Structure formats: structure tokens, C-alpha cells
Amino acid sequence: MPSELSPIDKAKFVAAKKATEYVKTGMKVGLGTGSTAAWLVQCLGEKVRNEGLRIKGVPTSSRTAQLAREVGIEVISLDEAKWLDLTIDGTDEYDGDLNLIKGGGGAHLQEKIVATASDQMIVIADPTKRVETLGAFPLPVEVIPFGWQTTKTLIEETLIGMDVLGQTTSLRMNGDAAFITDEGNHILDLHLNRIGNARQLSLVLNQIPGVVENGLFIDICDAVIIGYGDGRVEVNDINKGETVSSKFDFMDSGNLFSDDI
Ligand code: 5RP
Question: Is residue 259 very low, low, confident or very high in pLDDT (cuts 50, 70, 90)?
Fold first, then answer.
């Protein structure tokens, strides 16, 4: 039951649960990647199985695709969907303008393509993800394996001229081997501490040969749903310029965790 979860997992769960209210029958929905997005996929699966919700889901990673199928969500590709009504995803950081750092799970390339191909992007998060200025979380940059060390050097040289506090970079590892994304690429994590001009940095990074995509999401997110461990939920909608609060009742959370799926 959700009430037996840690406070941080309860926060992720209630944010995900709230986000399902925005998903209506007939929608094509981008499904994010990560632990918070996994709660969303489970909650949507419950609505598909128990409440007759009919949606088509476009996953942003092989992990999410597998989970979505397991919980009963119809999975289609982005090319089949062409355009989406809504994408719901987690984040590693968000600021007051709802700009994001994503890619902690290594899926920001597909996540950015899918979110950009959506009428609306909603981010679900726990309160630890809110920052004044982006950059404490290392910025993921997906690079092709060919010449990745040269690309790394070019990135480091570029960072010298940027408004950032740190300039070191590291190749993301998976045990003893380089991490490989779903697209067969590597990830460089940029330890910047503080990003003064995220829009400029995003544009400049994507000009470097070998860089496929960086994890800055600028002007893509429309609303953030923040869940708290005590069940409180806040919806911060940047277009409406309002934050609406509500509270989730854990006693009323249905049979999400007792279902056979
Ligand atoms: C994956 C992501 C995730 O959304 C981000 O890492 C947040 O993950 P979590 O919900 O597990 O904290 O960008 O590429």
C-alpha cells in the first residue's frame, strides 16, 4: 500500500496520481522515464484496467515501454502517434520558470523529442527537485561514441566561456563500462554547480559536433505537479500563472499495489 512507502516515494506517488487526472480517454500520451514516471505508468495502468481508460502511450525509453506493456497500456511509437496530447515526465531539477535539467536516467534525448511533440508537458516531482538556479545536478549531454573524447574536450573548452561555476565533465559509467543509451550513445555529465544562462548554454552545447542532445528543457514544460510525503499536492501552471493545492487521501488509494498485472 502507498501508506507504507517512504515519504519520498509517497511524494512521487501522489504527484503521479494527480497527473492522471489530466489524462482522458482517446489521448495519445508521452510516458516519461525514471522512478517518478514509473509511478505514473502504474497509476495509468490501474485506470486502464479498472476504469476503462483508453489511451495510447508513447514511451521515452525501453524501460518505460516494458513497464507500460506490463500494466496494460497500449504502446505505440512516436512516428505512429505523430503528435501527442500530453507528455508526463519526471525531472532532476526545475526552476521558477519551469525550465528543467533532465537525463539523470539517461533518457533525455527521447524525452525531449517526445515532450516537444506534445501539446502540453506536465512534470511530476517531489519537493527536492525545486532549485533557485539550475546546475547543482550534473547536466547530462548525450554524445555519439565516435570520437567522444574529442567531443568531451570541445565541451570543456566551450564551458570556459560560459556563465557556469564548474567546468569538469565525466563519462557516465555503468559498472566498469561506459553507460549506453537506448540510442547506442554515451552520456557526459557536466558538473557546472550553477548555470547562469541555461538558454544560451543549451544552444551552444548542441552546436558542438558529436553532441546529440543536452538535458536542458527550456520553455518546454507547462506545469509542475509537486507531491509531498503527507499527501499534499501543488499544481504550478506557468501558462495560467497559478498554483493550486489539494490533498491526497492515502486511505482512498484503491488496489494499485494488490492487483495482478
Ligand atoms: C530520466 C529523467 C528522469 O525524469 C529524472 O532523472 C528524474 O528521475 P526520478 O523520477 O527517478 O527522480 O530525466 O532521463
Answer: very low
Fold of 139-214: Alpha-Beta Plaits (3.30.70)
Is domain 2-131+219-252 in CATH 3.30.565.10, yes or no?
A: no
Supply the residue whose CA is at minimum distance from atom 8 of ligand 1. 34
- Residues noted as catalytic: 111
Look at residue 253 in the predicted model and tell me its pLDDT.
66
Atom 4 of ligand 1, nearest CA residue: 90
Mutate to test the pocket of ligand 1, among 8, 31, 33, 181 (most ligand atoms within 8 A of CB): 33
The secondary structure of residue 193, as a DSSP letter, is S
CA 26–ligand 1 middle distance (angstroms):
26
Average pLDDT score over residue span 201-206: 98
Give the DSSP H or E segment for 124. strand 121-125
List residues near ligand 1 (CB under 6 A). 32-37, 89-92, 102-108, 111
Residue of 62, 77, 126, 108 lying closest to 206 (CA atoms): 108
CA distances 13 to 16, 51, 75, 97, 235, Å, are 5, 19, 22, 24, 14
Question: Is pTM, for the whole model, over 0.70?
Answer: yes
Could you give the CA distance from residue 30 to residue 143 in angstroms, rounded to a whole number?
Answer: 24
Domain spans of the chain? 2-131+219-252, 139-214
Q: Is 214 left (phi over 0), alpha (psi -120 to 50) or beta?
A: beta
Ligand 1 pocket mutation pick from 40, 63, 99, 102 by most atoms within 8 angstroms of CB: 102
